[in-house]
Amino acid sequence: MDIIDGKELARQIRQQIKKEVETFSRPPGLAVILVGDDPASQVYVKNKTNACVEVGFYSDQIHKSSNITQEELLSEIKRLNENKIIDGILVQLPLPEHINEKAIIEAIIPEKDVDGFSSENIGKLMQNKSFIRPCTPKGIMNMLSTIDIDLNGKDCVVIGASNIVGRPMAMELLNAGATVTICHKLTKNITAKTNNADVVIAAAGVGNLVKKDWVKQNSVVIDVGINRMDDGKIVGDVDFESVKDKVSAISPVPGGVGPMTIATLLENTVIAYKSRV
Length: 277
Ligand code: NAD
Known about the structure:
The protein is α/β, with parallel strands linked by helices and 277 residues long. It has 2 domains: 26-109, Leucine Dehydrogenase, chain A, domain 1 (Rossmann fold); 135-257, Rossmann fold. Helix content is 40%, strand content 16%. The protein has 10 helices and 11 strands. A 6-stranded parallel beta sheet has the order 1-11-8-7-5-6. The chain has a 3-stranded parallel beta sheet with strand order 3-2-4, sandwiched between helices. The N and C termini lie far apart (44 Å). The structure holds nicotinamide-adenine-dinucleotide. Residues 136, 159-162, 164-166, 183-185, 187, 190, 203-206, 209, 224-227, 257-258, 261 line the site of nicotinamide-adenine-dinucleotide (NAD). Nicotinamide-adenine-dinucleotide binds at residues 136, 159-162, 164-166, 183-185, 187, 190, 203-206, 209, 224-227, 257-258, 261.
């Protein structure tokens, strides 16, 4: 059984990017906007900023109070859209309820949408003509490329149908030649689907949801979940200990998808930079 080491793979990607950045005429610039004081968002932004600094990017961390208006946030994005030394703009989600998340995402010009969430970039992914692809699913495709699996014709189940993980993940797998089933909270009899899957991607946000009897012998399981349990412990969506001995490969939490998401954000910023210089 392979444990897919996302932490190590992400380290290698950062190392390669760092070398490449040394050859650039100016450092790629990434602006990360954080609105409010959500502790989890603060950690994610800090990790993204640290990664930028490590690879030699110019990093602009913008912290706004939770009572910022939508117009103020839109004008901040307009300013960054026009800023020549900024190649990528990322707005950390979720945003406060009084702000229309969709309007904010669409305000980022597609060339700088390094999260790949805008309609234009998602549309390109749907047509298999990608420019910038959402970080978490793209990072997972990279993880799958490191193990011995040909996705052509494979049965894949994605648990979760969010715009940022489940849906683009399904599209990535389809683009790679797989047959894809997307499950969500209204799906009936999920285990009948996962039991037949060669690959299961768990992105429901439910701690330890996927148990040993959910998965097929020798299948591949990728765990996207980051869930804080009542005792403060962070767990994935997969009950790792019970599942690991049945599968051929599995990603752990922590040290799996999480670091790959950030490494992929750096890759996307390099793509955005190259499209603009
Ligand atoms: P979300 O809440 O937006 O979407 C969850 C999806 O799962 C929905 O489609 C919902 O219908 C489905 N779902 C919920 N309960 C279910 C159940 N019991 N059975 C089947 N489907 C169910 O969440 P999200 O933003 O897509 O994130 C999902 C998880 O992945 C969270 O734990 C989040 O923290 C984590 N995440 C991790 C990374 C990373 O880099 N590792 C990145 C993004 C999200």
